[in-house]
Each structure stands twice: as C-alpha cells, then as structure tokens.
Write a structure and sequence with these properties.
Two copies of one chain form a homodimer. Chain A is an alpha/beta fold. The first copy, chain A, has ten helices and ten strands. Chain A folds into two domains: 172 residues, HUPs (Rossmann fold, 3-Layer(aba) Sandwich); 92 residues, 2-Layer Sandwich (Pantoate--beta-alanine Ligase, Chain: A,domain 2).
Chain lengths: 280, 280
C-alpha cells in the first residue's frame, strides 16, 4: 500500500481517528526531514511497536535562533516520503508553517532548568521552540508512543520531562544513536563536511569514549572531561563549543558520579557544528 | 447515585476510560474549591452538555506568588463535595499536592504576552502556574470540553490561547459571571469583606458599567477609563490596582476601539482584593 501524505491537521486527525477505531496503536516519529539511517531506526522501532506509524516532517521556525539557519536547512520532501515508505511508515504529516502556526505563537512550553547547559546555553529559545512544537505535534496526533534519538540527548531529556510533568499519556521511546563504521554519529549535517573535515570528525566520538573509559576507571568528572578536551585540542581544525559530564536526567554538569551520567559535546569543524554524547 | 471522590491520578484515568467506553462526553470544571454559585453554573453547563462531569478541586501551589496566600486559601472538601453532588457532578478529582507535583516542576506552560498586563503585571509567575496546572489537568482528564468563568477573563484568555496554540482537542466554554442582586461578582473572597466593605464593593461593577456606557456613547478608551476611575476615587476605602480597557483576545490595553474589548479592574477593599470585568 502506498504511504499517505497528510498536509492538513484535519487530515491527520481523521487518519488517527480511523486508526484508533480500528484498534491500532499510534506511533509517532517527529522529524525535521532530511531523513537518514538515524531516523530509519526510529521508524523501524515505531513500526515494530505500532499499528499505525506517522512520521512528521516539519522544519520548525521557532526553534532556530538564526533565520539563515532556518532558510538553509535541507528540505527534500519527495526523497523523505520515499524513504518513509521504504521503511514501512503508514503516513507522513508534512504541514506548511501556516498550518502549524496560523498566527504568531502566544503560548510556549519551557523547561528552563533543563535548557540551561549544553546546547541550550548557546542557543537562547531553541529548546523552548522544540518543546512547544513537540507538545503541539503530540496534541495533534495523540500518539500512544513517540520515538526520539539519543543523539539529541538534551532534547530527549526535555521531552521526557515534559511528558512526565505535564502528565501526557504518551510513552517516550529513546533509540540509540546510529554511527558510521568509524564511530561518527549519523547526522544530516555530516554531508556539509569537506572530505578532510569528515576524516577528522570521528575524533569527537573517540574523545567521548576516552572520557567514559576514564570514568569507568575511577576518574572524577573533571579529569575525564580534561582528558577528552586534551584529545580534541590536538586537532587544530576542531573548535570545542562544550564538553561536559552531566546528570542523565537533569542535564546539569556534575563533579561527582552519583547516578547515571552522559558525556556530551558540541564541536565545530569549519562551518559545521556536530554534537554527540554517550551514556555511562 | 452518590458522587465519586477520586484522589489518585490512576483512579481519574480509569473513571475517564470507563466513561469513554460508555460513549460519554467528558466535561471538566477545574476549580480551587471553596465552591459557590459562580462554580455552580459552570457545573450546570457541563452537566447539560456532558455525559460525565468531573469537578477538579486543587489549590495549586505554583500559582501563588506569596506562600501565605496559599496557606490561608479556603479549603473545605466535605462542603465542596456535597455542593458538587447537589449540582449533579459525577466525580470530584481532589488530588494531594504530591500527586500533582511528585517532584519540583521542571516544565511550564507560559503565555508571556497575555500575562503582561492586568493581574499578570503584579503577580509574577501567577499565570505560568495557572496555565501549567490547567495543561496538566487537561492531560490527566482528557476532557472534550472544559468550563471557565468569565470573571477571570485574563485566565480564560490564556487558556483559550493555550488550547488553540498547542492544538489541544478541547472545547473551552466561557460562562458569564454570576452576580449578587446589587451587582457584586460572586467570589470566595467576598466572605472576607466586613459588612461596611461589602456595602461599598458593588461600586466596582457600577464603575465598569459606567465605562462601558461611555464607550457605547462614543468615548475613547482613555475617557471611559478615567470616568470609571473618578467614580471609584470618590470612595476612599477603595484602592484601585488597575482598571483598563483591553482587547478581548490579547488582554492588551487599547487606545482605539477596533474590535471586542473588555473593561477589567482589580481593587482593594481593606485586606481583600476583588476583580471584575465586563465585555462590550
């Protein structure tokens, strides 16, 4: 059966209503398009657990702090649609901006504490935009479960907190990061790297692993962090935006290990910003 | 049949599930208790339009800017329960604070523009607390419709904006203010007035009416506002906190009439703060 492309909210609600009436579990995979294998395993997981799988493709203007970033974000709906069909999704919801924001937004969902560090520190309003659009998509589609990649660990933590704190009856399913054979986390941004930059990019994952090994061997977070920073500093093409050992739930840097942590970093390679993180 | 008292979220969800299964429309009346005739007509309206009517009674700690205000807020669950039964509600959801906030809240719903004026101007965080708890109650009960009094016009405007902007599939039903025969809007705070203060309180409504008459006769908002302020200033026991002609949707003061407006005011009579508003 051919995948269904839904452009209007009313079409989405009707598709969900029919799936519910047929007793199907609804699985939602929110994306901004430019789909790759990292999204693919989100769809696979949703497919395995749901009767009706919806992929949303929406480049959300309110989460970009710079308009130029929003403008140049990769958009290729025909390719994304073909990819979703191949991965077995039932429907793609790809609304226009006016369908999602018929007027300037007046109401926002915020997680101030969880947005303070890491990617939130340098991108004011970014996670407010993310939480708000995900809350909207959740209310639009009313899924039983929604699937998010661990690569965006801070986003995932904020969405988990939103669902818990606002009592949304939705299961948030975290899906591990997909990596190229050399360890680089798959991202739509990787295609912007020059061949030379691409050859240096796996150092990010190796630095995170080295910090994780340090922690496993008993180092305190400050030591583990410093060894990873030292490793990255030996490559002059890499500029570190942040590298932190954070509590896995609160996304706040820790100086002692008292529970599950993540080691998270953002680096720049030329004009391209890469993020990655690993659990311990 | 006796009304059901639900204390736990799981009980609420189960009651809603059963009502849905029976094909009933769910009507929600969120309150902080201390119920009076103003709440009564909310319940009546919900009763007329719903198969299953839930009144929530929860004094929400995060919407009070002063802890003392929260502590002294009137609580009388047995009386409220009897009142809900008499008005024909099916269930009362009256959770403990720990059921609603099992840990300090990390995620908030905000309507910054709509909270800037009127009651929001002097109560930082108040409407953030209101929007957040109402979002939670909506997710908990998943009602088809929810009923709010027009007396709290700014709260109503924020909740209408929340439901629209976050795409919540809930009908918000505004219910007109209930007044004593002398015009005073019914409020749980009225019981705090001394007999002398009570005799002066109806001046608030008369001042709002005088402003509305002025607008109807072609006065600009500044003139209408000033005539109402003059009227209130002749009573030394009354201190005006604000009195504004605002756009009915944005809750922002207007200097020209270009669409529906509300005239809204807050006054102090001794230790008691009274609010009221009327549409034009």
């Amino acid at each position: 059966m051919s995948i269904r492309l839904l452009k209007r909210l009313a079409e989405l609600r009707e598709a969900v209503r029919q799936a519910r009436q047929a007793g199907q579990r609804i699985g939602l995979v929110p994306t901004m398009g430019a789909l790759h294998a990292g999204h693919g395993i989100l769809i696979d997981r949703a497919r395995a657990e749901s009767g009706f799988v919806i992929v949303t493709i929406f480049v959300n203007p309110i989460q970009f702090d710079r308009p130029s970033d929003f403008e140049r974000y990769t958009r290729n709906l025909p390719a994304d649609l073909a990819y979703c069909q191949q991965r077995g999704a039932d429907a793609v919801f790809a609304p226009d901006a006016a369908e999602v924001y018929p007027h300037p937004p007046r109401v926002f969902v915020e997680a101030p504490g969880l947005s303070e560090h890491l990617c939130g520190a340098n991108r004011p309003g970014h996670f407010r935009g993310v939480a708000t659009v995900v809350a909207k998509l959740f209310q639009m589609a009313q899924p039983d479960a929604a699937y998010f990649g661990e690569k965006d660990a801070q986003q995932l933590a904020i969405i988990q907190a939103m669902v818990e704190d606002l009592n949304m009856p939705i299961a948030i399913v975290p899906v591990p990061t997909v990596r190229d054979p050399d360890g680089l986390a798959i991202s739509s941004r990787n295609s912007r790297l020059t061949p030379q930059e691409r050859s240096k990019a796996p150092l990010l994952y190796r630095a995170l692993q080295s910090a994780a090994n340090g922690l496993a061997a008993g180092a305190v977070p400050a030591q583990a962090r410093q060894s990873a920073l030292d490793m990255l500093s030996r490559e002059p093409a890499i500029k570190v935006e942040y590298l932190e050992v954070v509590d896995a739930r609160s996304m706040t840097p820790v100086d002692q290990i008292r529970g599950p942590v993540r080691i998270a970093a953002a680096i720049w390679l030329g004009e391209t910003r890469l993020i990655d993180n690993i659990p311990t």
